[in-house]
Structures are given as C-alpha cells and as structure tokens.
Amino acid sequence: MIGYSTIGCSDFEKAKTFYDRLLADLGGKRVFGSDRIQFYGGGQGGMLAVCIPYDKNASAPGNGNMVALSAPSREDVDKVYKNALSLGCADEGAPGERTPTFYGAYFRDPDGNKLCVFKMG
Q1: What is the reported pTM?
Q2: Does domain 4-54+65-120 match CATH 3.40.50.2300?
Q3: What are the extents of the domains in the chain?
Q4: Which of 23, 33, 71, 119 has minimal CB crowding within 10 Å?
C-alpha cells in the first residue's frame, strides 16, 4: 500500500552515503534522485527517500514516526542492526522477538530518525 516514505536530513551527502551502506544489506540501491532527494528501492515495490526538506527549514525527526524496513530473515535483521550501530546509529532496541510472529531491531540514523528492521513470521 505504501509507495514511498521520506526521511529528512541535515547533510544530504552524508545521508546518501549512510543509506547506501545501510540499505545494501537489504538489496536496496539508489533508483533515482535530484539535488535534494534520493530514492532507494529494492525491487519489491515500496521505496525510501532521504531528502533536504522542501521548505529548507531544519530537518527534525517526528515523535512517534518510524520507518520499518522488511528483511528476508532474522539473520538479516541481526546483520543490518549490527551494521547500523557500526555506522554510528543510536540503539533503540536490540534484535529480538517482540511477538511470536515479529522479530525486530530498532535504531536512529545520524539525523535522529527512528528505523526498525524486521522479519514477520
């Protein structure tokens, strides 16, 4: 149902480098962009974009906002989480089973945006 989600950033080049490295573990890569927004796709339909806010005001993470990234396996959740922390992300919850059918991990990107990587089932 979701076509794409955007995440604001304060340093566009740094954000693109970060998401290049983070999303590679999930098969994500740059698909198209401009001088203020970069879209990533993984061939599964939805996309994630990192951008300089259109109004040119400071980027700020929202309270209660989060982007969840689907992983093919629990091992991939662990791998992406470990990579995120090595890239300087703040830990928001180590990988683990949250319900019998949901395994996830949580972290914040360099701009403070909250992300989850998860495996259902």
Answers
A1: 0.91
A2: no
A3: 4-54+65-120
A4: 33
